[in-house]
């Protein structure tokens, strides 16, 4: 049986990882040279195989360079000097983004309610 759950994959190709981050494969290869923490496994013919740990490292690099606008040397130094604190900050930012998306969804759902919907809900509550 074919495994369609991407979370269960052990390795991802460079194309899959590039698509995850919406970047070119060449950028991932460049970051490998710039960040010693990023070391995907290389199979036959030097085909890169990214593990979950590599993807987590890439998330952090992407956050520092693309979202926070840090220079490569600044991001490299941040990851070298205080990776744990940087990871914690990144996780907090990601969680806040998730909460923001949930709140926007709730706001949109509330905005979709009409006066008639509210009146129907009132009637239903009064019947109970």
Automatic annotation (TrEMBL):
<dbReference type="InterPro" id="IPR009061">
    <property type="entry name" value="DNA-bd_dom_put_sf"/>
</dbReference>
<dbReference type="InterPro" id="IPR000551">
    <property type="entry name" value="MerR-type_HTH_dom"/>
</dbReference>
<keyword id="KW-0238">DNA-binding</keyword>
<dbReference type="Pfam" id="PF13411">
    <property type="entry name" value="MerR_1"/>
</dbReference>
<feature type="domain" description="HTH merR-type">
    <location>
        <begin position="11"/>
        <end position="81"/>
    </location>
</feature>
<dbReference type="GO" id="GO:0003700">
    <property type="term" value="F:DNA-binding transcription factor activity"/>
</dbReference>
<protein>
    <submittedName>
        <fullName>DNA-binding transcriptional MerR regulator</fullName>
    </submittedName>
</protein>
<dbReference type="InterPro" id="IPR047057">
    <property type="entry name" value="MerR_fam"/>
</dbReference>
<dbReference type="GO" id="GO:0003677">
    <property type="term" value="F:DNA binding"/>
</dbReference>
């Amino acid at each position: 049986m074919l495994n369609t759950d991407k979370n269960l994959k052990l390795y991802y190709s460079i194309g899959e990882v590039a698509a995850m981050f919406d970047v070119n494969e060449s950028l991932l290869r460049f970051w490998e040279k710039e960040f010693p923490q990023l070391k995907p496994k290389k199979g036959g013919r030097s085909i890169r195989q990214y593990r979950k740990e590599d993807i987590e490292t890439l998330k952090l690099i992407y956050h520092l360079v693309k979202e926070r606008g840090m220079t490569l040397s600044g991001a490299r130094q941040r990851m070298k000097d205080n990776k744990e604190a940087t990871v914690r900050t990144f996780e907090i930012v990601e969680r806040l983004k998730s909460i923001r998306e949930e709140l926007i969804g709730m706001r949109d759902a509330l905005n979709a309610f009409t006066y008639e919907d509210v009146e129907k809900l009132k009637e239903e509550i009064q019947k109970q």
